[in-house]
Structure formats: structure tokens, C-alpha cells
Specification:
The complex is a heterodimer of chains A (111) and B (114). Chain A is an all-beta fold and 111 residues long. In chain A, 0% of the residues lie in helices and 49% in strands. In chain A, the strands form three sheets. In chain A, strands 2, 5, 6, 10, 11 and 12 form a six-stranded mixed sheet that branches. In chain A, a hairpin with a 2-residue loop joins strand 7 (56-59) and strand 8. Chain B has one domain: Immunoglobulins (Immunoglobulin-like, Sandwich). Chain B has one helix at 59-64; strands at 5-7, 10-13, 19-24, 31-37, 43-50, 53-57, 65-68, 75-79, 88-95, 104-105, 109-113. In chain B, strands 2, 4, 5, 6, 9, 10 and 11 form a seven-stranded mixed sheet that branches. In chain B, strands 1-3-8-7 form a four-stranded antiparallel sheet. Classes of the chains: A mainly beta (111), B mainly beta (114). At the A-B interface, strand 6, strand 10 and strand 11 of A face strand 4, strand 5 and strand 10 of B.
Chain lengths: 111, 114
């Protein structure tokens, strides 16, 4: 079956620094990848999505590029803010819009 | 703000009791999902519907859960006999179609089984 791997469980950074959260995947079909963000006690919300190889997608200062050759979809931001502290999930569409999630990465941004 | 409405936000049940939670999907979304998010934040897919029909479900859901999405009524997920291991956040989500469209989540029902 499909699987998504996020290698970092916790990332702590000072505001203003760049961040990269890793995501690799294995999918049965043509990959469609997502990044979701979940703030404390809030619903997970879509941050980015892509199915196009080697094309950068951006939203709210975050960006990611799907690389089918390396099965990766890493999330990046040039300068993190305090409000970016949250739980970040990489996910793939496993068919019928059913999502297979990674284990999540907690991003903590300090002043 | 989330347009997928889940009630109740918190639910406390004793072991062996039934636990029922409800979900109103985003207006016009025929596809509904239920996920379980455990204390380690890991997601587990439980079941999905298109309109009133079940599309996919895992073994656990088939054996221990009762779920439905009747027309003109909230969707529901009910654990027939709660176990301590069922303590988790249950997230409902909806989407406009079955392929590559955004999935919108509710805030979840946090179930604690004591």
C-alpha cells in the first residue's frame, strides 16, 4: 500500500530562520501530494498540493516541489514566523481522495 | 473557519458504552471521510462515503463501528462498545469529488474512554 514518511518529529527554530520539513512517499498510482497544517485545537487545513513533477507550488510563504525521481515533496519556508508553530502533515492521495498521512512534524518557532 | 461541523467537541464514555459523534459536511460535498487521530498525532482512515453509500472501510470499522450518512441528516460514527484504545480525536472531512480535490476537515470530536 501507499506510505508517506516524515523524518522529523519535532523541529524547533528561531523566528526569521528558514525551514525545510522532509517528506518522501511510496504510491501505487500517479502521485498527488499534499501538505496539511494543524494548529492546536483546530481542523487540519490544506497548505499545498501538487501532482506536477518538478513544478514549485507556493502558498502563504510556504513552497514545495514534487520530485518524482526521488519520490519527495519537501516543505520549505524562507523565514518562519511565530504563527507558523503547528503540526505539519504530508499526505498522498491513495485513491478516492482517501489520504495517507505521514506521522507529522511539530514545528515550534521561538522569539 | 472550518465549514465541516462536528459535534460534540468532547465526549467521555465508560468502557463498553456506545459513543456516537456527528458530522455535517461542507454544503454540496457528497464525499465524506472519517479519520482517527491518536495521541501520537497519527491518522488512521476509518471509512468514506459518497452520498449515502459506503465506498471503503477498514476491518475495525466494519466490526466495531456503525457509520452512516443519510440524506438531509448529519453523518454519524458510532462505536458500539468503547475500549480504552478508542480514545482519540475523530476527524470528519468532506470533498467535492473522489479525485484530487481539496479535502476539508472539521475540528474533530475528542473521545476519552475511561
Amino acid at each position: 500500500g501507499d506510505s508517506v514518511t516524515q523524518t522529523e518529529g519535532l523541529v524547533t527554530l528561531t523566528k526569521g530562520l528558514p525551514v525545510m520539513l522532509n517528506c518522501t512517499y511510496q504510491t501505487t498510482y500517479s502521485p498527488f501530494l499534499f501538505w496539511y497544517v494543524q494548529h492546536l485545537n483546530e481542523a487540519p487545513k490544506l497548505l499545498l498540493k501538487s501532482s506536477t513533477d518538478n513544478k514549485r507550488t507556493e502558498h502563504q510563504g510556504f513552497y514545495a516541489t514534487l520530485h518524482k525521481s526521488s519520490s519527495s515533496f519537501h516543505l520549505q519556508k524562507s523565514s518562519v514566523q511565530l504563527s507558523d508553530s503547528a503540526l505539519y502533515f504530508c499526505a498522498s492521495d491513495s485513491g478516492y481522495n482517501k489520504l495517507t498521512f505521514g506521522k507529522g512534524t511539530v514545528l515550534l518557532v521561538s522569539p | 473557519n472550518s465549514k465541516v461541523i462536528q459535534t460534540p467537541r468532547y465526549l467521555v464514555k465508560g468502557q463498553g458504552q456506545k459513543a456516537k459523534m456527528r458530522c455535517i459536511p461542507e454544503k454540496g460535498h457528497p464525499v465524506v471521510f472519517w479519520y482517527q487521530q491518536n495521541k501520537n498525532n497519527e491518522f488512521k482512515f476509518l471509512i468514506n462515503f459518497q452520498n449515502q453509500e459506503v465506498l471503503q472501510q477498514i476491518d475495525m470499522t466494519e466490526k466495531r463501528f456503525s457509520a452512516e450518512c443519510p440524506s438531509n441528516s448529519p453523518c454519524s460514527l458510532e462505536i458500539q462498545s468503547s475500549e480504552a484504545g478508542d480514545s482519540a480525536l475523530y476527524l470528519c472531512a468532506s470533498s467535492l469529488s473522489l479525485r484530487n480535490t481539496e479535502v476539508f476537515f472539521g475540528k474533530g470530536t475528542r473521545l476519552t474512554v475511561v
